Amino acid sequence: MNAFAARSGDWALVTGAGRGIGRFLCRHFAAKGMRIAAVDIDEAAARETIDLCPTEGRALPCDVSDHDSVLAAATELSDANIAPSLVWLNAGVGSATTVLDAKPHALDWLLGVNVYGPIRTAQAFVPLMPESGPRHVGITASSASVTPVSGPYTLYATTKQMTAAIGEALMAELAPKGVGVTILCPGILDTDIWNAAQARPERFGGARQTPGEVGDHWRAQPGPDVLARGLDEALAAGGGWCIVPTETDTEGKMADRHDAQSAGLKRYAVKQP
């Protein structure tokens, strides 16, 4: 895999850039001299992110769950001759619902943002990248992508395992082109993902403010800056998995998942040499 080093003046595009991990990513790469295309469903929040960056930037309104909205953002970038050398598929939402209990709106919303969103944005923004030079694609999954699915956020965990699988698909598709891919899997961080419904579109049930006390657990965790070291190491290595847990039991849970998969392996259908 080709190492990626941010170059001053190059463009980095980040979805879900209005807050949380997306805002961190924008500021992180701007600090390295990159110009920033901040993409978010909340244009005002994206503009706030750009204002916090020391380099040139552009805020673009975009609902990653909406095909036409994504195409409009890509067209705006193309018309402005912006060719991002780094594309980070970061937008994601959370919901405390389960596979069996999810209402249709909740199901469509989580799939629309966490699964269809990275596919749509990859299809729209990756073709805008330069044909040569340092290029990289990042995708934000979750520590829930690498541990056994457990309650109460089972639907969220399910969609985030799918997010990570999209990252693996992009690895396979982009490797022949010399483009590395990083799958970022953070643990629970002090972000507003617990209140993601504040920006939920009407077709998914509309905006809803989650009670503030729900966010207490998230507010007690480290901020997204804790991702910086692992992120830089992954990019320098050319990509791959970048798992930065904030819970002490994540590694053990990963081992449990792998052990369960190994225990379920039935070799009798494989013809022995």
Account of the protein in words:
This protein has helices at 20-30, 43-51, 67-79, 104-114, 116-125, 154-174, 216-219, 228-236, 250-263, and strands at residues 11-15, 35-40, 57-61, 86-89, 136-140, 180-186, 240-244. The model has no long low-confidence stretch (mean pLDDT 92). The relative contact order is 0.14. Helix content is 37%, strand content 14%. Helix 3 (67-79) runs parallel beside helix 5 and helix 4 runs parallel beside helix 6. It has a seven-stranded parallel beta sheet, with helices on both faces.
Give the tags.
single chain, 273 residues, alpha/beta, 7-stranded parallel β-sheet
Task: Count helical runs.
Answer: 9
Largest sheet: 7 strands, parallel
Termini separation: 32 Å
> Count the strands?
7
Query: How much helix is in the residues?
Result: 25-40%
Low-confidence stretches are none
Our estimate of the beta-strand percent is 5-15%
Element string (H = helix, E = strand): EHEHEHEHHEHEHHEH
Structural class: alpha/beta
Characterize the overall form. Answer: globular
What is the typical, i.e. mean, pLDDT?
A: 92
- Widest sheet, order of strands: 3-2-1-4-5-6-7
- Rg calc: 18 Å
